[in-house]
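agent: user wants the structure for BZIP domain-containing protein from Anisodus tanguticus. delegating to structure tool.
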Amino acid sequence: MMFEDPVHYHLPVLEDVILSPSDIHEILSLLQTEIPVQSTSGSETTRSVFSLEERKRRRKISNRESARRSRFRKKKHLDNLEDRVDRLKVENRELKNRLCVVTHHCQAAQSETDRLILESIVLQQQLAGLCQILHPMQLH
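agent: tool returned. relaying tokens verbatim.
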């Protein structure tokens, strides 16, 4: 009876990976399958077919993990964009409030300017009237 060395599978260590039950089942089935021993009756063909199937399964698992990581990155990017939108909305609201306050101060200043111009016109008219009254008195 011949003993073979155990087959060691080196799978990448993935952080923050959540495996579905079907993923776990596939991984366990890969670990439980036995590689046929070479014999003289065409087992080389069986071994290469099995290796091809094994590679396909591993590639499928790898693709799933890659897709999962891609979805995670996409979600993280989307979350970052949503946070940025929220911050910009707050900043926009603050700027609108500041603009409203400044506009109110500007309108108040314009009203005060208009009032002062009108008061100046009235005072100039009063001064002109006083000058008309005083001018004939100074001649005598």
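agent: one observation worth passing along. Helices lie at 21-32, 43-139.
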